Amino acid sequence: QVQLVESGGRLVQTGGSLRLSCAASGFTFSDYAMGWFRQAPGKERESVAALNWSGTMTYYADSVQGRFTIFRDNAKDRLYLQMNSLQPEDTAVYYCTKDRYSVPSSWMSPGEYDSWGQGTQVTVSS
């Protein structure tokens, strides 16, 4: 079965950087688009970034554009999220997601995705 396991979340100071990783298994990773979502306490889950099967097409929420970079290594079945210039409002649980398709059609919609990881906590201290 599909498994998505996130890692890399931790406590970091404002302005710092983190790289999240998602190890995928149970499906042909290179066939599918992937994404990252996040959920802060008391808030709805929101889209962060997504990319197509090859990584040549990327999509970002306005709030992270220019600070975060999504990329993938299809040889290693891994998805990454490089996060720079972190701010307290980036504090959230971050989730790795598998798209239903090879190219996202509605990448910001949770319904686009059919599998989710358990999440990794990112906390940015002010």
Provide structural commentary:
- With 126 residues, this protein is mainly β.
- The chain is 0% helix and 48% strand.
- It is built from no helices and eleven strands.
- The strands form two sheets. Strands 2, 4, 5, 6, 9, 10 and 11 form a seven-stranded mixed sheet that branches. It has a four-stranded antiparallel sheet with strand order 1-3-8-7, with no helix packed on it.
- It is globular and about 40 Å long.
- The N and C termini lie far apart (40 Å).
- The mean pLDDT is 97.
What brief labels describe this structure?
126 residues; mainly beta; 7-stranded mixed sheet; 4-stranded antiparallel sheet; 11 strands
Following the backbone from N to C, one meets helices and strands in this order, namely EEEEEEEEEEE
Number of helices: 0
What structural category arises from helix and sheet content?
mainly beta
Choose one word for the global shape.
Answer: globular
Average pLDDT number: 97
What fraction, in percent, of the residue positions are helical? under 10%
What's the topology here?
Elements: E1 3-7, E2 11-13, E3 18-25, E4 34-39, E5 46-51, E6 58-60, E7 68-73, E8 78-83, E9 92-99, E10 113-116, E11 120-125
Parallel strand pairs: 2-11
Antiparallel strand pairs: 1-3, 3-8, 4-5, 4-9, 5-6, 7-8, 9-10, 9-11
Summarize the structure in short.
The protein contains no helices and eleven strands. With about 130 residues, the protein is mostly beta strands. A hairpin with a 6-residue loop joins β5 and β6 (about 60).
